[in-house]
Amino acid sequence: MRTSRPSRRAVLAGTAVALTVVPVLGSPAQAAQASAAPTYRWRTVVIGGTGFITGVLFHPSVRGLAYARTDIGGAYRWDDRAARWTPLTDHLGWDDWNLLGVEAMAVDPAHPDRLYLALGTYAQPWAGNGAILRSEDRGATWKRTDLTVKLGANEDGRGAGERLLVDPRDSDTLWLGTRHDGLLKSTDRGATWAAATGFPATPSASGQGITLLVAAGRAVYVGWGDGDGTSPHLYRTTDGTTWHPVPGQPTGTSAKVPIRAAYDRHTRALYVTYADAPGPNGQSDGSVHKLATVTGKWADVTPVKPGGPAPDGATDTFGYGGVAVDARRPGTVVVSTNNRWAAVDTLYRSTDGGRTWTSLKDSAVFDVSETPYLKWGADEPKFGWWIQALAVDPYDSKHIVYGTGATLYGTRDLKNWAPQIRGLEETSVRQLISPPVGEAHLISGLGDIGVMYHERLTASPSRGMATNPVFGSATGLAQAAGRPVYVVRTGWGDHGNGAYSNDGGQTWAPFAAQPDIAKSAPGPIATNADGSVLLWSFVHWDGTKYAAHRSADNGATWSEVSSFPKGATPVADPADPTLFYAYDTDTGTLYASTDSGRSFTARATGLPSGDSQFKIAVAPGRSGDLWLSTKSNGLYRSTDGGVTFAKVASCWASHTLGFGMAADGADYPAIYQVGSTEAITAVYRSDDEAKTWVRINDDAHQWGWTGEAITGDPRIHGRVYLATNGRGIQYGEPV
What we know:
Layout: E1 21-25, H1 28-32, E2 40-44, E3 53-58, E4 65-70, E5 75-79, E6 84-87, E7 102-108, E8 111-119, E9 131-135, E10 143-146, E11 164-166, E12 174-177, E13 183-186, E14 194-195, E15 210-216, E16 219-224, E17 234-237, E18 244-245, E19 257-264, E20 269-275, E21 286-292, E22 297-300, E23 308-309, E24 315-316, E25 319-325, E26 333-338, E27 347-350, E28 358-359, E29 365-366, E30 390-392, E31 400-403, E32 408-411, E33 416-419, E34 429-433, E35 442-446, E36 450-454, E37 474-479, E38 487-491, E39 498-501, E40 509-510, E41 522-527, E42 534-539, E43 545-551, E44 559-561, E45 570-572, E46 580-584, E47 589-593, E48 601-602, E49 615-618, E50 626-630, E51 634-638, E52 645-648, E53 653-660, E54 670-676, E55 682-686, E56 694-695, E57 710-712, E58 720-723, E59 729-734
Parallel strand pairs: 1-52, 29-33
Antiparallel strand pairs: 2-59, 3-4, 4-5, 5-6, 7-8, 8-9, 9-10, 11-12, 12-13, 13-14, 15-16, 16-17, 17-18, 19-20, 20-21, 21-22, 23-24, 25-26, 26-27, 27-28, 30-31, 31-32, 32-33, 34-35, 35-36, 37-38, 38-39, 39-40, 41-42, 42-43, 43-44, 45-46, 46-47, 47-48, 49-50, 50-51, 51-52, 53-54, 54-55, 55-56, ...
C-alpha cells in the first residue's frame, strides 16, 4: 500500500558520449557563508487522513484523551477541546525514516501522562532496528531507547492488536511483542529491554510472532500468530514469569490468527477476534470468541459466519478485526469485519455479551462534506475497509471510532458518522505542482488517492480526488509551462491510466487511447511547454522498465520512442516546446530531444549512476537550465541543455530540488531542496543560485524521509511545499 525505500542494484552500461564537466559552481568559502536562517512556520496541507489508521487507544483514566497510530505516518494525540489530532513524532529526521511507522502504543492507567510507542516500519534486512519512545508528558517530549530487533508497522498484521503493554501489576514493567524475536520485557519503564524468560512459543523468521498483548485483571494475555491453526495461539501469565497456553481455546482455520482482544472488567470476559490471515489483506474466514476468565469457559459469539452469499452473487468472505468493550455498560461489545469486499465491511454491536448482534452499517448516515475525497468518485462513501482499529470511548458509550484504509470515522449517537480526522494527515506524496496562475496554488499527486486540486490549503479539496477516471496511486503529474491551464496525470486505475485537464486541474477527461503497457506499468508523464506533445514513460511496480511512448494529439494515438532510456522520467524544457530531457540512472547519462520527443540522443555521460533517487529539475522560464540531484554525490547544474554539467560545491547531497518566486532584487528563482550542506539532511532555501543555503525547517519538523518532491510557490516568495512519505504535504512560510 505504501512506498518504501529498498535500494535497487543498478546495471551499468557503456556510453557513447564522453563526460564533459566544467569547474564547480560556488567555492568552499562561499558554501560556508550562509545568511541567518529565517524563521519558518510549518503547517500541513489539509486533505483529511488518507492513510491506514492501524490503532486507536482511549485513555481509561482521562476523559477526552486518546492516541492514534498509523502504518507509516507516526502517532497522534487527540485534543478533545480543539477536536483535532496533534502529531507526536514529526521530530524524527531523515536517518530515522524507518521509525515513522508505529507498531504499537501503550498508556499507563495509573499514570495518565505516561505514553509509550514502539516504532519500526519494516522488519526487512534493509531496514533499521526499531525503537521505543517514552514520554512523561503525553508525547510533548520523549526519551528514546533503540532496540536490537526490527518491528514491522507497515507489514502484514499491522492492524492487529497493541503489541506493547504496561503490566497491570507494576507500572515499571512493560511487555513488547515482536514479529520475529519473541516477547521482550522491561522492568525500568522501557529504558532497557531483554527477552522475557519462560515464554514458550518459538518465533520464526517469516511468521507474525506476537499479534496482541492485553491485560485482563492482573493477568496478561499474548496472541501468537505463527503455526498451523492447531497449535496454541493464546498464552497467559498471572505472575509475569510463567506462561501457559490458555485451555480450551479455539482451533481450526477460522481461528488461525488472533487479531485483537478486549477485556470487559464488569463481566470478566475476554473477547478475541480471529482471521485466517493477519490482514489487512488476504482474509477470507474468521470468528469471534469469548472467554469467561473466571471459569475458563469459551463461547463462539461470531455475529455472522463468513462464506455465505453476498448481495452481488459472490461469496461473502472476510475475517474479523477490531474489538472493543464498553467500559460503562457490562456485556456491551463492538467488533468489525475486515476484508469484506463483496458485502462491504461493517461494525457489529452487542449489548448482551455476544448472544445477539446489530450491524451498525444498516442504519448509518455519513457526512463526508469535510473530506469529499472519501466518496472515491461515487455518490456516497463506503462504510469502510481495512477496519481493524476500533475503540469505544470509556466516558461515552455512544462515542465509537474506527479506522479505515483512508480515515477515522466517529459517531456520538450510533447512527450519524463523520470523519474524526482533523489534524491527522498520512498521505504518501509523489508529485507537487504549484501553478503560476489560477485559483489553486497547489496540485498534488498522491499515493492511494490519486491527484488533488487544492483551492485552499486549510481545507480538504472540495472536488475530492480527481475523477474521470479515478486513480489509486498517482505515477505522473505535469503542467505545460507556457500553457498552465493544461495539466496531465497518470496512475493506477481500473478505467484508464491517463487523463488531461484544460482548466488547470479542476476537471479531467481520460486519454482517448493508451498504450497496452499503461495498465500494468503506468509511469511518469511530461508535456512540453505549449502542451502539444505528451511523453509517457512506463515502469512496473517491481521495477521492470519499458519503452516510452509519445502522443501529439492529446492522447488519441501513441507511438513508441525507442531511443528514450527505458523507465526514465521525462522532463520538458519550460521555454522551448521542442526540447525534452531524460536522465538514465543506470548509466549516468543525460539524454535530450530537440524534435519534440520523437528521438533522444546522449549528451553528458559519466555522471553519477546506480540509484533511482536521481532527479532532474529545470529552472522555470529558462531553456536548458538543468539541475541534477544525487543523494550520494551532491548537486550538478547544466546551463547548456545537458551538454556539460558542473558540480555545485555548496552541498554534498541533494535528494530533491524545486523552484519558487525569486527574492526581492534577485534575478533568479529561489531554489528549495532536501539535501545536506553540513552534517544533517534538512530542508534548505537558496536565493543566490545555490551559492549559499539556509536551513528552513527545524529539529521539531523533520517528518522522516522527504526525498520525493519539493517546490516553491511561483507567486509567493519563501513559501515552499514539501512531499513526505506518510505525513502528507507540509508547507512552510517565513514569519
